[in-house]
Amino acid sequence: MSATTKISYAQALAEAIRIEMQRSADVLCVAAADAAGRSPVVAELSAAFGPDRVVELDAGVHPIAAAAGMAARGARVVCEARLARLGPEGLAPLAELDSELEGAVVARIPDGGPEPGAVAPAPLADWALETPLAVAAPATPADAKGLLTARIRGGSSCCLLEAEQLYGTVGDVPEGSHPVEAESARVEGDERLSRVSVVAYGLGSRVAAAARDRSKSGFELVDLRLLRPLDRNAVAASVGRTGKAAVLEPAASRRVTGEVAAMLLSEAFELLDGPLARIELPAATDIDEAAATVAERVDDLAGY
Amino acid sequence: MTSPAASIVPAIPHGPEISRAERLALLEAMTASRAVRSRVAAARRRGRMAPLGDPAGPGWEALEAAIAKALREDEILVAAAAWPAPLVRARRLGARSRLAEVVAAGLGATVGAPGDRAVAVLAGPGLRPAAERALASAVRRRAPLVVLVAAPGAAAAALRTAAGTAGAVFEQVSAAEVELITLAAESACNAARAGRGPTLIACPPAPAPRPRRPWEPQEPSADPIERYAARLEQLGIPASVPYAPAPGR
After folding, report:
1. Average pLDDT, chain A
2. Contact A65 B101 (CB under 8 A)
């Protein structure tokens, strides 16, 4: 077991990118100029690697398209992009990028809640799932570092959904290079008898983990880690043990609920003792407040 | 096979010096592109392919043939998915990518590239303010970028304004004149390789010939392949490849 260190989610992301940029000169980092200032991840890297490796684009230049152009030349590009501002077709430049190319783009998509002037928060997970790209949504610093490292090293272009509320959360992260090929979801059982399987990702997984201490009933938490490909076996196995399922998803997003519902109806219908429930995670959520709400909903579903 | 009605094609004054073999190669390139487009159109009619937009239709083959000739083997072409571009390996972006995104991708492809390598971009119309910003960024970085845009309707005028605002060199060449587009593309690529910054080349289609009375001279065809085959015939170079005329021309 490698040594671990306690660092924050944002530090874990920066460390993953820094290690990979040190390992290979083909790894580049791209960020768009932002009136709100640089993200903490990019600011740290820019000082270390300079403008040739950490490319800061002028305002108005589409960062994902520029990253796709760099990938066309064989670079493996980590691109930070505010997808809420780019719109639902912001990931379109990556949709057809030749999978035979050595280059690829890992699009980091921070989700900080509704954009200024927006009526409602953007369904970033839904927009990402509209494309054929792999989509990851790590919930812990260790997963963030591991998934990002793995995607930078190999594979085709993908999206990494990051909830900005998780940036300050701290967790144990293995030191050094730590790629995680997360084909499977992480299932956390409860020592109490679990009557509900709560399927969540990203911020939802952290909220659900915090809700476990508050709920009267026990529940199994299925942290998807990857939204595409979805770990259908883990979800079905968990529902087989508990008999009920609930998907915890941001209010604006619907797609993961739909995919889990379709999967359960077609492959695991006989395992269900009740209909699939959907628990909405409000935008700009305080984790503790949301955990209390989620705990109540899970207890209702479990019959408490 | 040339149409007898398309035999009268005005000579290009001060035209480029192109060898017989290169001329035939341009005609074959456009013919290959037309063949791919015909298959795409047939697949779309059968419902086996989603609509890709204007650049996938006939009439824009000269842009692909010209840029294939102008680029060197180790240089990159970035194109939206709508461009078949069969003779040069294009790095394709998503079908819904707009001009601004394709230009941004071309700009990205110049990052870290050797200074004497050009990057070409093939794009359809669809000007947005973001395209001007991407072009301005390319001018500021003196990126070795050549942008060819299929520009039907009033798009060419809008592109001229955008290039002026961004400070980029602008050229307008008829999409029906493959040799002129080739000349413009080669000149732009040489300027890019020499570090003189990006060039935007807008290619509006030629007007379709009007219906003629029997005593009026036949106007040249607006189809780039028919037009070029007629020019080669005037120069005494028989077209060596069969081609299908664009429907409705």
Report:
1. 86
2. yes
Instruction: Give the chain A residue nearest B145 (alpha carbons).
Output: A69
Across A24-33, A55-64, A260-269, which has the greatest mean pLDDT?
A: A260-269
| Whole-number Cα distances in Å, B178 to A201, B21, B186 | 54, 15, 12
Binary contact (A65, B93; C-beta < 8 A): yes
ipTM for the predicted complex: 0.80
Is the CB of residue B191 less than 8 Å from the CB of residue B147?
A: no
Which pairing describes strands A277-281 and B76-80: parallel, antiparallel, or unpaired?
unpaired
Distance CA A208, CA A189 (A): 12
pLDDT in tens, A101-118: 668 899 999 887 767 766
All residues at 6 or more sequence positions from B157 whose CB lies less than 8 Å from its CB, including other chains: none
- Using a CB-CB cut-off of 8 Å, the residues of chain B touching A62 are 100-101, 104, 130, 134
pTM: 0.83
* Mutation target vs A (from B75, B77, B93; most A CBs, 10 A cutoff): B93
Q: What is the pLDDT of residues B200-217, one digit of tens each?
A: 999 988 877 777 777 777
